Amino acid sequence: IIIMIKNRSIRFVNFELAKLPVVFLWSKKWVFLCEKAYQIIDTAIESSVMTKVKGFGVHNGQVMDVADYVTPTQGASVFCIITKTITTENQVQGLCPESEKRWICNNDSDCNPQRNKPGDYGILTGRCVSFNNTNNTCEIKGWCPAEIDTVKITPMMEVENFTIFIKNSIRFPKFNYTKGNFLPSINQTYIKKCNFDKVNNTYCPIFRVRDVVHYANQDFRKLGGVIGIKISWMCDLDKSDEHCKPSYSFNRLDTMSQKNEVSPGYNFRFAKYYKMENGTDYRTLIKAYAIRFDVIVNGNAGKFNMIPTLINMVAAFTSVGVGTVLCDIILLNFLKGAEQYKAKKFEEVKCQVSIKQEKNQQSQQLFLIHIQPSNPLKLCGFVSVITVFHLTNEMNQIHEE
Fold first, then answer.
1. Phi/psi class of residue 393: alpha, beta or left (left: φ > 0; alpha: ψ in -120 to 50)?
2. What is the pLDDT of residues 53-107, one digit of tens each?
3. Given 6, 29, 96, 225, which is the most exposed site by the fewest CB atoms within 10 A?
4. Is 269 annotated as a binding residue?
5. Which residues contact 256 (CB under 8 A, 6 or more apart)?
6. Is 245 annotated among the ligand-binding residues?
7. InterPro entries given for it (predicted)?
């Protein structure tokens, strides 16, 4: 029998939407195999990071080594490489004029309203004192002389050739699996001469600062911000150990700082304290401009497990009938020819029902029900069962009466 459906809408629904189970099974194949739905996943990665910077530079006529330009010095996952500094030496506790222009004054009345309030570098005394031969500024109590941070300082350009050594160890606690970024192929000879690059040395744990800044799409000469070094571990533990390897990526984390002229770059202050022979404390204040590096570790590991496998297999098998159900819903409710489709899908079969009342040998009253379809080629089917059920209820009522 060949059935031709001339209506395009019905033909589309019957033949195109009927393919949904196949499409669904293909999607399940994608989820099950490509997305590894048969695995149990551990995302609670535990990680430790140790860093070490090497290199020498020249700043303000002095040779700088790692102890001068790296802070903190413990080799943590977050560290700064100082590119330039503004130094205010021999500060002692006392009274001195403010150094910022906004505190310029003509007499004490200009400063008195701000008395005992914080200025830029100390507590205001309310007095107007001489700052230089040209200007007077409000007086402060604090570390004197006050810092002047408007001087132009040339950055230490050798920083771009410094190297960053990163040692990373990770553990997935669910599987008790540990790994480090020192792969078996890395030996003493290789580690002494390698520098990371994305083509030939993708697993070298030594990074040149210039390359890191370049991979983060930044200009070293204009840079003063926060760079992220991301180490990703995506491990399939159903495969051999050698397939679990780190991947490195780089980006600038403080991207909003580039769009804001109020506080561009990255800087901070720290001080070195000393004591005079007479016991007076003094210090050297250092305002440092730096590049901050954040080493960020993430990842997950997957391994075969029967529970997710069974769940996804059952979900795939039970979804086969979705396409047929969806076709019927559309055809029966949303198309113009829904009534015609209903007439063909649900055929009404008329049945003749006859009831004969008799008594058996024990004088018990019996009801004999005979159901005869009007068309001998048709069966009353489920409708007959329902009819018998209703007639049986009625006869029970008659019998009780």
1. alpha
2. 999 999 988 999 999 999 988 888 999 999 999 999 999 999 999 999 999 999 9
3. 6
4. yes
5. none
6. no
7. P2X3_purnocptor, P2X_extracellular_dom_sf, P2X_purnocptor, P2X_receptor, P2X_RECEPTOR_CS
Structure tokens at 70: 């790296």
Q: Which 3 state secondary structure label does DSSP give 268?
A: strand
pTM of the model: 0.69
Q: What does the pLDDT look like over 191-226, one tens digit per residue?
A: 988 999 999 899 999 999 999 999 998 887 777 789
Question: Does the annotation list 71 as a binding residue?
Answer: no
Q: For 64-76, how does the pLDDT look when each residue is reduced to its tens digit (9 = 90+)?
A: 999 999 998 888 8
Q: Which amino acid is at 348?
A: E
CA distance 281 to 94: 11
54 annotated as belonging to a binding site for a ligand: yes
Tell me: is residue 189 an annotated ligand-binding position: no
Using a 10 angstrom Cβ sphere, with 0-12 exposed, 13-18 middle and 19 or more buried, the burial of residue 120 is middle
53 labeled binding residue: yes
- Pull the structure tokens for residue 72: 């903190």
267 labelled ligand-binding: yes
Phi, psi of 319 (to 5 degrees): -95, 0
Instruction: Name the residue among 401, 393, 388, 399 with its Cα closest to residue 357.
Output: 399
